[in-house]
Amino acid sequence: MLQKVVRSAIIDAPIERVWTVLRDFNSHDQWHSAIETSHIEGGERSDQVGCVRNFTLKDGHHIREQLLTLSDREHQSTYCIVEASLPLQRYVATVTLKPVTDGNRTFWHWMSSFATPPGMERELHDTVAQGVYETGFEDLRRYLRGGADQRSRGAGPMPTALPVPTRRIGVARHGGPDVLWPQNAEAAAPGAGEVRIRQRAVGVNFIDVYLRRGWVPTMFPVSEGAPGVPGMEAAGGVLDVGPQVSGFLPGDRVAYLGPVPGAYCGVRSVPADWVVRLPPEIEDETAAALLLKGITADYLLHDLGHVQRGTRLLVHAAAGGVGLLVCAWARRLGAVVIGTVSSEDKARVAREHGCEHVIVTRDYRFAEAVQRVCGGADVVIDGLGDAARDENLAALARRGHWISLGQASGPLAPLAPDALVAKSLSFSRPVVFDYVATQAQLAERAQRVWQALADGAIRLPPIERFPLDAAAEAHARLESRASIGALVLLP
Ligand SMILES: NC(=O)c1ccc[n+]([C@@H]2O[C@H](COP(=O)([O-])OP(=O)(O)OC[C@H]3O[C@@H](n4cnc5c(N)ncnc54)[C@H](OP(=O)(O)O)[C@@H]3O)[C@@H](O)[C@H]2O)c1
């Protein structure tokens, strides 16, 4: 006969904070004191329905459990035991969270049904009810309090502040995509002013390619003994926080963006100043696809390009990660948007995202078409670099502004001031990190991007997803000029 165990508790934390921890099917070794170690089999995501967590208990037992359902809307997940050294048979459990509006707390309902060998009913019932559920409630409360307690003490390591095993992509020498090597590593405990994040989506940006190739060696020194790890941004959940951190608690859903590479991994400690909390409607993959690229589009259009109604804007790689966001947002501002792309497929997507005049060219010939369409560009947003140099000068209108933000075709050769004088042109060479140099700037700009998405000024671009271990494939795809929209890695 099946027996049933039902337990519930009130957790003194908002529902999204509790859910961020519980929806991660592999988080329990972080917070439940009965669990020794746990991993997800086959490199699957820990919130992927069907994934199997393989864990050992402190008492030596070994269990494999499969995630059966996961609903972010209902805050509910169901899982079952597929194999266990404990004689729990046909075990199926459901975790459900409900908001408690009084005090912004969370009601946690945990129930299961299972069969046992005759004579073991009482013992196994108590193991599940007390050893797993009641202990779990207490442990999660303690885990969520960890950050707050520590902040009020101002210093001292948290009980969980140990290195955490993680997967990462190491680069031991500069070169092609094949130098990106998946490896096991440890994520250091967060130091003073840092938060440690279990990453669920990592943004891939063209700067990662420059770094891997060795084009910016000061920013990305690598060696056999000390491999570099690329990546400037990611999204996930806070695991724990270091001393002198305020504003973040374990379980918070966050994203970050910072000027020091290292994001191609599963768990990472980063300065809290790089981190923003995510609104519930912004999913991890959306954040990883949009944070750096959306903020770039924001500063290009508003701060640097002063784009407004009637501005003639030329956007290169218009169907790329940054390009699609720039097109849509510029169109919303009333600009005349002209874009270059290398294929008809890309042209179609660029049009869907607001690019009014699309020039299809694979060999960087566009100036004549731009002059024909609008008489010259007031602003050029150029991530192409050297191969487009002379055409950019020819495509600009009088007093035009050439914003050189990248060099996908190769580093731009030095530009003599006299190259600008003929049409009184201006030239900028900006980098996104200078526009989010403080936490307040980052939070404000991130909010503008989420708002732009909410009010339709930008649309979510197509997202191409790769497992973290397939980072080399993602790079090869980005460099092949075949990708459309944003690429993300899934740890
Ligand atoms: N400075 C900053 O703050 C900042 C921030 C973010 C991005 N960026 C720059 O903005 C540009 C776009 O970045 P992203 O990450 O969104 O990349 P992306 O636009 O998604 O991908 C790069 C695109 O560049 C075009 N391209 C032209 N020649 C290429 C070549 N020889 N090899 C590879 N690609 C080539 C391709 O589009 P077509 O085939 O359609 O031409 C390709 O899809 C990059 O230059 C990047 O460095 C700068």
UniProtKB/TrEMBL annotation:
Alphabetically ordered keywords of this record: NADP, Oxidoreductase
Domain called Enoyl reductase (ER): residue spans: 175-489
One Pfam family hit: ADH_zinc_N
InterPro entries: ADH-like_C (IPR013149), ADH-like_N (IPR013154), ER (IPR020843), GroES-like_sf (IPR011032), NAD(P)-bd_dom_sf (IPR036291), Polyketide_cyclase/dehydratase (IPR019587), QOR-like (IPR047618), START-like_dom_sf (IPR023393)
Record's keyword annotation contains NADP: yes
Protein name (Swiss-Prot/TrEMBL): SRPBCC family protein
